[in-house]
Design a protein that fits this description.
alpha+beta
């Protein structure tokens, strides 16, 4: 086992990793990305940023620029809100002028995290077929110059 190699593999700003398999079994090219752990008195979750160089656009197979998860026993402590806030300057440094995030309409905790970080609802839409069924909410956070 190579702990340092594993940590280094969490950052892939040049999208050198292998293709990503979608829920429907199809494969798509990996996007440039990096992942950060949410850590507060132990492991609490992770947050990831993905983008395409030179554009704010994402392919339709991508749910958004940022995804995050907090372990169930550490939710409702503001950890996701703080992690997203800490990640936004890094997103700006990649050249992005905004980030898009999606969530299910019933995920009130995620909606609060996004809104506390300046996210505005852009649209309510049907999920892409590669991401299941039902509705999703698309939020956008504009990134100031750093």
């Amino acid at each position: 086992m190579d702990p340092e190699g594993f940590i280094a593999s969490l950052d892939d700003p040049d999208a050198r990793g292998g293709d990503i398999q979608l829920q429907d079994g199809n494969f798509v090219k990996r996007l440039p990305s990096f992942r950060r752990w949410i850590w507060h008195a132990g492991f609490c979750g992770s947050i990831e940023l993905r983008w395409q160089h030179g554009t704010n656009a994402l392919p339709p197979t991508c749910l958004g620029h940022i995804g995050y998860a907090v372990v169930p026993w550490r939710r409702r402590e503001g950890l996701a809100t703080a992690a997203l806030s800490a990640l936004l300057p890094d997103a700006r440094r990649t050249g992005l002028t905004f980030v898009d995030l999606t969530t299910d309409p019933g995920n009130t905790a995620s909606i609060r995290v996004i809104e506390k970080n300046g996210g505005l609802l852009v649209e309510r839409r049907d999920k892409a077929p590669t991401h299941g069924r039902g509705e999703e909410l698309l939020f956008r956070i504009h990134l100031p110059l750093v």
